[in-house]
Amino acid sequence: MKKPMVEANRLSKLLNHVLADAERFPVDVQSLALEYSAQCFPEEPIVKIEEVDICGFEGVLTRHPTKSKWKIGYHNNLRSEGRIRFTLAHEFGHYLLHRALKSSFECTQQDMHQWDGSEQEIEVAADTFASYLLMPLDDFRLQLGTQPISIDLLMHLSSRYGVSPMAAALKWAEIERKRMVVVAARDGFVLWAKSSPSAFRSGVYLASRKQRIEVPARSLLNEALASDEARTGTLPANRWFAREPAGMMITEHVHVCRGYYPYVLGLLVLPDAAPRWEEPDGELLVPVHRVLLERLQT
C-alpha cells in the first residue's frame, strides 16, 4: 500500500514548482484531482466531481461500470468550504492510495473504533493524505515561525489553507513543541481532545473516548458560547490535569465555532515539564477530523 504522507508530499512539491505563491493555497483539490489523474493515469482518470444526495455518506469515490473512469461525490448538505475541501482531498487520497483494492469507497462519520482493521487502516490513510496535502508541514511550520500560540494565528492558518479551525488546530497539535492540548467542548463536557507530543509524553491528555470529562467550572470553555469573541485566560493547571503541580497555571485560548452544531474550540497551553513516558492511548491515533465530526453530530 502506498504511504499517504509520501504521496501528499510528492504532490505538494509539484504544486510548489508549478504555482506562484499567491496561487498555492488553499489547494484547489477539484482541479488537482481532475488534471493530475488525467495526466498520470489516463487509462482510469477521475472524470467528474459533483454534489450528490448520498444519505448516510459524506463522500464517495466510485468506479464507472466500464472500469475505465472514476467519480468523486460529496454530500449536498455540506455547506462549509473547508469541510468540502477536506472531503474531496480524502476521496482523492482513496483514489491514489487504494483504488486497486475495490471499486467503491463510501465514507461515513461512523465511529472508527467500530470498523475492522483493514477498513480503519485505509480511512486513517485517506485522512492523513488529506491533512498533509492541504496543510504541508514545511509551509505550516513557516507560518507558525516563532509566534506565540493564539487564536489569531489559528485563524490565519484556517484561512490560508481553506480548512476549518478544528482541522488547523489538530494539525498544529501534531507538531507543536510546547505542551498544548486542543479541546472541543459543548454543554460543559469535552467532545474530543488531542495533545501535542510533548504534552502527551508528560502525561497531559484527556481520554474523552473512555470517560465523560467535564469542563472545569471556571474554564473559559464554559463561558465562550455566550460570546463570538476569541478569549484568553488562565486557570490552575490541575483543574484540567490533576497531576500537574499546585501553582502551575494553564493558558486557555478559546474560539467559538458556529454553525448547525456549535462548539467551543480551546487551545490549552502549559509550561514545559519533564516527560513521564506513558504508554500510548489508542484514541490519540485516529484521523484528524472524522471522530470529532461524529461527536459533534450526536
Helix and strand topology:
Layout: H1 4-18, H2 21-24, H3 29-40, E1 46-52, E2 59-63, E3 70-75, H4 81-98, E4 104-107, H5 117-134, H6 137-144, H7 151-161, H8 165-175, E5 179-186, E6 189-195, H9 197-201, E7 231-236, H10 237-240, E8 249-257, E9 263-270, H11 290-296
Parallel strand pairs: 1-3
Antiparallel strand pairs: 2-3, 2-4, 5-6, 5-9, 7-8, 8-9
Helix pairs in contact: 1-5, 4-5, 7-8
Structure in words:
Helices cover about 40% and strands about 20% of the residues. The chain is built from eleven helices and nine strands. Helix 1 packs parallel to helix 5, helix 4 (about 80-100) crosses helix 5 and helix 7 (about 150-160) packs across helix 8. The protein has helices at about 5-20, 20-25, 30-40, 80-100, 115-135, 135-145, 150-160, 165-175, 195-200, 235-240, 290-295, and strands spanning about 45-50, 60-65, 70-75, 105, 180-185, 190-195, 230-235, 250-255, 265-270. The chain starts with a helix and ends with a helix. It has two domains: about 5-135, no CATH class; about 160-295, 2-Layer Sandwich (Beta-Lactamase), CATH 3.30.450. Strands 6-5-9-8-7 form a five-stranded antiparallel beta sheet. Strands 1-3-2-4 form a four-stranded mixed beta sheet, covered by helices on one side. The chain is α+β, with helices and mostly antiparallel strands and about 300 residues long. It is elongated and about 65 Å long.
